[in-house]
Write a structure and sequence with these properties.
With 363 residues, this protein is mainly α. The chain has a domain at 243-346: Serine Threonine Protein Phosphatase 5, Tetratricopeptide repeat (Alpha Horseshoe). The protein has helices at 6-19, 23-36, 41-53, 57-70, 75-87, 91-104, 109-121, 125-138, 143-155, 159-170, 176-188, 192-205, 212-222, 226-239, 244-256, 260-273, 278-290, 294-307, 312-324, 328-354. Helix 2 runs antiparallel to helix 3 (41-53), helix 3 runs antiparallel to helix 4 (57-70) and helix 19 (312-324) runs antiparallel to helix 20. The protein is globular.
Length: 363
């Protein structure tokens, strides 16, 4: 659609302002234009791009969604919408659009890498491997594909395959990615000293690499260096404010320090990434209980044990809530269920330890 006269001039001015870095003027001009032409989907998409440049991701999501309603087959608008959701830490919504893009263009690099990244953040490494494996064949020399696929394979406990990719990265010489994967490998083997050494090197080589501070923090915390670990988790949040593990760890630290409001802000961020994670949901209920929101904590814990009936800690916490509410019979029931679940888990563990190893078949 073409616009004559003043509207066309307004669009040119908006584009010129955007190219010169005057994002505020571009946003104002685009919005003025859209008052007269609200169905101009391409211009609304341009406004979304300007809002992204200005860091207004929530407003950009609104504009991109409106544009996509009129241009449902426009892959560029859908990709920009997915990116805006990603920047907001709203990964389930980002994944919804990235999966559409990946289905339409399975070998397109950008949506596949971003989708794999979302899958790793959501603790779904097998899905990340599924997305990236075809790209490994299509882009054999692409460093990002090799690195993210290697990390996904390690998280999925497919160590030999991950090691083959790690060897490929190591053959190119020292890099932050290689040090990160080496640290991840050593952490899986529970060699904390070696893991911390590699991850410290990765941090030094590229302090802005996603996940490196979190993994280093996990290694330090497992080694009993809690204060140093907390520093790393905070550093991760400077790079990626929505990192799930860093947010849950910082939330736990704030709760232990008697700062439930700060803890709640971090666990809320974590739940944007993994809204159904039982551990994060349990943390949120614990924070609400500390804040004196007993009724809300009760509802959250009741829902949690409905969804995860084998979550013994949730049963025990709900028992404490019931006792606080003077619902003694309900408290006794949940306390007994917590014991039963723990005993059953212990029994299964002992049976697994005592079971004879599977016999190897003769060839």
């Amino acid at each position: 659609m073409l616009w004559a006269g003043e509207p066309q001039e307004s669009l040119r001015e908006a584009q010129t302002a955007l190219q010169s870095g005057d994002v505020g003027t571009a946003i104002r001009l685009y919005r003025e234009f859209l008052k007269s032409y609200p169905n101009a989907a391409e211009i609304r998409s341009n406004l979304g791009a300007a809002l992204v440049q200005d860091g207004q991701f929530a407003a950009a999501v609104t504009e991109y969604n409106m544009a996509l309603q009129q241009l449902p087959n426009n892959l560029r608008v859908r990709m920009n919408l997915a990116l805006a959701y990603y920047k907001l830490g709203r990964l389930p919504e980002a994944v919804e659009h990235l999966e559409v893009l990946h289905k339409l263009q399975p070998l397109e690099l950008k949506p596949a890498l971003l989708l794999a990244d979302c899958m790793l953040e959501a603790n779904r490494p097998a899905k990340a491997v599924e997305v990236l494996t075809p790209l490994r064949e299509e882009y054999p020399d692409d460093h990002a594909v090799v690195y993210v696929l290697g990390m996904a394979l390690m998280k999925d406990n497919r160590i030999p395959e991950a090691q083959a990719l790690l060897d490929r990265i190591l053959s190119d010489g020292e890099s932050a990615e290689a040090a990160f994967l080496l640290g991840q490998s050593e952490l899986l083997r529970n060699d904390l000293v070696a893991a911390a050494g590699h991850l410290a090197r990765a941090v030094k080589l590229d302090p802005k690499m996603p996940w490196v501070h979190t993994l280093y923090g996990q290694a330090l915390k497992t080694a009993g260096k809690v204060e140093e670990a907390t520093v790393q988790f905070n550093e991760e949040l400077k790079v990626n404010p929505y990192d799930f593990t860093a947010n849950t760890e910082i939330a736990l630290q704030f709760l232990q320090d008697g700062k439930p409001d700060e803890a709640l802000s971090h666990i809320t961020m974590a739940l944007q990434v993994r809204p159904d994670d039982p551990g994060a949901l349990y943390q949120r209920a614990s924070i609400h209980l500390t804040q004196g929101l007993t009724g809300q904590a009760r509802q959250e814990l009741e829902q949690l044990i409905r969804d995860y009936p084998s979550f013994s800690e949730a049963h025990a916490a709900l028992a404490r809530v019931y006792y606080k509410l003077q619902r003694t019979a309900d408290g006794d029931r949940e306390a007994a269920e917590a014991r039963r679940v723990r005993e059953e888990a212990q029994k299964q563990l002992e049976e697994k330890r005592n079971s004879p190893p599977a016999k190897k078949q003769l060839r």
